[in-house]
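Methods: example folding runs. The two proteins below were folded one after another, and each record is reproduced exactly as written to the output file, sequence line first and structure-token line second.
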Amino acid sequence: MSSLRYVRTPSERTIIDKLHALRRKVGLSDGVKFRAEFLVLAFKHGLVSDICTYRLWDEGWDELGERTFDTCFEMGDAEEVIAMVVSQARNEGFLDAIRNYCNMPGSFDRWLGYADKQACLF
């Protein structure tokens, strides 16, 4: 029985390598920028599912799975992280990826609210 391996383009591999490099930085207490960067890369490049289903880990990027993704929201600064991600998504045109992720009623509006609240602080 042969095993089919998903083939990644060089540009995909570059993005996944960046995510892999960030995987241990997202848990740092002062890692808000790393958490936001990780999520931006995941959403912008359509890799959220591949991360959360451990597909990337299975392809050889060890420790790049749902646990890492979840850590981005569990460090006490989730509102700030989400605000940064939403702001960048608005500027770079990948807001629909976030909308698709936020599948619970009201969650996408809550994410937008975090960004709008942060914008009012400046």
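Second run, written to the same file directly after the first:
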Amino acid sequence: MHRKPHTHHSPEFKEQALLKARHRGTRSLLNLAGELNMSPGTLKRWVLDSGKAAEQAHGETSAALDGPAASWSPSQRLTALQESYALNGSALAGWCRERGVFEHQLAQWREDFCTPIAPASREATGAFRELQRQHDQLQRELRRKEKALAEVAALLVLQKNFQALLEGADK
């Protein structure tokens, strides 16, 4: 295996490479380095160094916000919203670059968190109404059967009393 010649990369190239590395999805760093025509070791070192720099800059670990932003869990998105809330302008742009997030993603997440849950869909409402109709129908049927049972019980009591009267009259 031959080594690629040592080349100096511009800061812009490095920033773009790091952005692609953060948003690579399921692709490996090796594959991405090949696409960028650079050493996989260099790309890996850049990714590790950028993570360490972010930790030192914030005095805390940024592990909670690892991986592509599109695949972050709701708690990670909430953490991102909390961290970026007071930032604006170039400070917000720098924060977004460090974490591989776009400002429009933050805006969408903020809207998602602040929007109340939408009312039930038409299909769900229709299904609920159908279940309610069936429930009401079953309740009517149950009341009808309870009345019929009460009538039968009353008839049995009357029949028993009538037979007792007939037996008493025969004696």
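Comment on the second run: The chain has a mean pLDDT of 81.
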